[in-house]
User: Which sequence fits this backbone?
């Protein structure tokens, strides 16, 4: 039984996520802050992602509370201290803290959860894996030569990752905050994983070349079949895509609109989750992200069909506030709030969450 410290009085430097966000604001340049927070277009989807959580309400039973609920769970074969992964956030994460995902890797392991490592990271997938006793999921964009993508997956397998998070990005995103700041991921952070060769500027340019033909489901299915690691498909927000991903061989689904960073005017991600769960059936693992800001949001996402959530901006703020210690504080606070939410809802364990806990 894992225990959660529930005392209000604590000697920890950070006691709330609000406090962590304030410190992150102090630490980050305007450009880095905008990169972290930006969405696409008018940022309607970005706002909707959290507004949709704000509209959800719990139905709490009287005289049925649980004093020490169990937050630990098992997802994709991973033992998690609470049902969360770190989402793959990349491109500019070294702007948040020079240690980037190395700090995240150590923090996630220390707090008993797993990390998804982005291909567009400032540190190579091998370096990040070596920083953690429990490497987990490596995110790969399905673009370019199939052989090159399979080589990258092979490197991830050799480094100890257990799964691939498949992403698809058909064309450059319209992010006006970045445009106004003249910020480009390409020059600033030196992503280390692109192409078969590390730090190869030509390979990097090719991977980021949005004029190249994009993949279709047949190619995705071919590569997933040849992949030595099971693949989780990210960006699923409809029954149509859930069914297509499963037909193509996905071992799990990842409901996400990339935190409103892909295309504006998509529905709030949480509003698509129940449809995806219905289409997938009960046995397919589903990870959810886009809008998780609190422990109570985690409970809501699980009530609507997710097995675990992924944490993007929330963890990035911790990284910016205080590197590894900041990420640990974020995870600790989220777990505590999730724990108390479970107790109020009368759930003694994660698997007892369901639509009945919502009004
Ligand atoms: C700064 C930043 C960089 C990101 N980079 C990537 C990336 O390289 N690959 C990816 O799959 N998703 C990326 N994402 C999306 C996250 O994985 C996740 O889907 C998103 O942050 C969820 O929204 P939320 O943080 O608002 O909850 C990025 C997100 C942020 C904030």
Assistant:
């Amino acid at each position: 039984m894992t225990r959660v410290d529930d005392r209000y009085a604590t000697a920890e430097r950070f006691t709330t996520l609000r406090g962590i966000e304030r410190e992150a604001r102090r630490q980050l340049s305007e450009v880095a802050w905008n990169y972290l927070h930006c969405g696409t277009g008018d940022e309607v989807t970005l706002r909707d992602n959290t507004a949709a959580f704000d509209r959800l309400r719990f139905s709490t039973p009287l005289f049925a509370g649980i004093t020490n609920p169990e937050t630990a769970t098992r997802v994709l074969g991973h033992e998690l201290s609470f049902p969360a992964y770190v989402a793959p956030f990349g491109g500019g994460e070294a702007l948040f803290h020079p240690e980037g995902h190395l700090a995240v890797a150590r923090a996630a392991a220390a707090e008993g959860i797993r990390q998804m490592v982005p291909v567009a990271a400032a540190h190579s997938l091998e370096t990040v894996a070596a920083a953690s006793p429990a490497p987990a999921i490596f995110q790969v964009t399905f673009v370019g030569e199939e052989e090159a993508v399979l080589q990258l997956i092979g490197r991830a397998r050799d480094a100890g990752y257990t799964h691939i998070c498949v992403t698809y990005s058909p064309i450059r995103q319209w992010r006006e905050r970045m445009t106004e700041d003249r910020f480009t991921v390409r020059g600033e952070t030196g992503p280390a994983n692109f192409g078969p060769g590390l730090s190869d500027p030509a390979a990097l340019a090719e991977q980021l070349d949005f004029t190249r033909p994009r993949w279709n489901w047949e190619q995705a299915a071919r590569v997933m079949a040849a992949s030595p690691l099971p693949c989780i498909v990210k960006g699923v927000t409809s029954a149509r895509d859930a069914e297509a991903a499963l037909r193509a061989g996905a071992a799990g689904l990842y409901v996400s609109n990339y935190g409103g960073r892909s295309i504006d005017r998509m529905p709030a991600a949480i509003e698509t989750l129940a449809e995806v769960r219905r289409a997938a059936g009960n046995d397919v693992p589903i990870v959810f992200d886009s809008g998780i800001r609190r422990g109570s949001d985690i409970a809501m996402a699980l009530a609507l069909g997710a097995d675990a959530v992924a944490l993007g901006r929330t963890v990035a703020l911790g990284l910016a506030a205080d590197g590894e210690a900041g990420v640990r504080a974020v995870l600790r606070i989220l777990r505590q709030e999730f724990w108390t939410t479970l107790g109020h809802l009368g759930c003694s364990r994660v698997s007892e969450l369901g639509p009945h806990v919502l009004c």
